[in-house]
Write a structure and sequence with these properties.
Blueprint lengths: L3 H12 L5 E3 L2 H12 L10 H12 L10 E5 L4 E5 L2 H8 L9 H9 L1 E5 L3 H11 L5 E5 L23 H12 L4 E5 L7 H5 L8 E4 L4 H13 L4 E7 L2 E7 L16 H5 L7 H12 L5 H7 L13 H19 L7 E5 L1 H5 L6 H22 L4
Parallel strand pairs: 1-3, 4-5, 4-7, 5-6, 7-8
Antiparallel strand pairs: 2-3, 8-9, 9-10
């Protein structure tokens, strides 16, 4: 710690009524840093010990690290952890990324400013982003609290039930990276949009949109397109994921949702949608790629099912796919607009392409279209 007030605050915590659990991780971290700088020296090498001692003498006061680095305090755990400074910690935390991510890519990735709206699938995405050393500046938005039905796909515990998803997410991210810059928003709305998206040098470099509300989805894209911010979205599709990439930074006139829905219709969306509009809009946005079970489930939303069914496998897959696409965009690698199917069924189900399975998908697809027309007619 370098600032006197920080030292005073930490000593006050230590002397307070409640015990502060201390994790002095720095001595072990110092040796990890040494291994990174001298990867050619194995621990059983006769030169390892003497080189390490010289390293301690030159860089770490002979190994006395009590006054080095910083103490990161996590009030929700009453825990303080002894760590190196921010730049050294980032280098250590991303050491195993090299050279799968080059140093220049890592620099661009970490410097990015990313917004994440919707923190079910969004929490998986942002955790993977930060875990791989990306998005050093984050804005996260979600109006909801954690419910028991979220626990099949959100990495949290029953201790978090009733807590704001933004708080759960921020705590997880700070425990991954105590230096993470995070701004928290109680949902993405017209009122919060200016602060969330930013302007000029403060503008987001990327939006990950994972909200449940169709009106918010449309509004977020109108706002992102006006600011030339690219948008990523992953849609659960059983155990699979559909990733939508909208490069409004490169295509500022690009139609929202790849033109799947007329924009005039999107402008007319109200706060509450009738079942017919909600189901037909969801069908239009997701398209024919839905699995058999998802199609059958969608017809029962509002009758036998309370909402779109979602699985933890899809949430985890979506997090990886979104982080991958985000890294490509943020580091300047090709990532064109379009829809990308990431399908475990195709990769791991050996019967997926059998004639019987193909025929079943075609049969259910035809029945699904007929059922939509029977239930909702030609709903706008």
């Amino acid at each position: 710690m370098t600032r006197r007030q920080d030292v005073a605050d930490f000593e006050e915590l230590r002397s307070g009524g409640e015990a502060v659990h201390e994790v002095d991780a720095l001595p072990g971290i110092v040796e990890e840093l040494f291994r990174i700088e001298f990867p050619f020296l194995a621990p059983d090498s006769p030169f390892y010990g003497i080189t390490f001692r010289r390293y301690l003498a030159a860089r770490w006061n002979g190994g006395d690290v009590r006054g080095a680095g910083v103490w990161a305090y996590f009030p929700w755990r009453r825990t303080a952890v002894h760590l190196p400074d921010e730049a050294t910690f980032l280098r250590l935390r991303t050491a195993r990324n090299r050279d799968l991510i080059t140093p220049r890519e890592q620099e661009l990735y970490q410097a990015a400013r990313v917004g994440v709206a919707g923190l079910s699938v969004g929490m998986s995405a942002v955790t993977t982003l930060v875990g791989t050393g990306g998005a050093g500046r984050l804005r996260i938005a979600d109006p909801d609290v954690l419910g028991a039905t979220n626990l099949n796909r959100v990495t949290a515990s029953v201790c978090h039930l009733g807590a704001a998803k933004t708080a759960i997410c921020a705590e997880r991210l700070w425990e991954l990276n105590p230096f993470q810059r995070i701004e928290v928003f109680d949902g993405l709305t017209e009122r919060s949009a200016e602060a969330f998206f930013g302007r000029g040098a403060d503008c987001l470099d990327l939006l990950v949109e994972e909200t449940d509300d169709l009106r918010t989805k449309a509004f977020a894209r109108f706002a992102a397109r006006a600011r030339r911010i690219p948008v990523l979205m992953a849609t659960d599709n059983g155990d699979n994921v559909l990733v939508d990439v909208e490069r409004f930074d490169l295509e500022p006139e690009r139609p929202l949702f790849h033109g799947a829905v007329d924009e005039a219709r999107l402008c007319r969306l109200g706060d509450r949608l009738a079942d017919a509009e909600r189901v037909t809009l969801a069908d239009a946005l997701v398209g024919p790629e839905m699995t058999v079970r998802v199609k059958l489930s969608l017809l029962q939303v509002g009758t036998r099912l309370v909402g779109w069914p979602q699985l933890g496998t899809a949430a985890a897959l979506a997090g990886a796919a979104l982080a991958y696409a985000a890294r490509r965009i943020l580091t300047g690698r090709p990532m064109p607009s379009g829809r990308y199917a990431v399908a475990l069924d195709e990769a791991l189900d050996v019967g997926h392409r059998s004639p019987a399975a193909v025929a079943e998908r075609e049969r259910v697809g035809a029945e699904y279209r007929q059922s939509l027309r029977a239930m909702f007619g030609d709903a706008p």
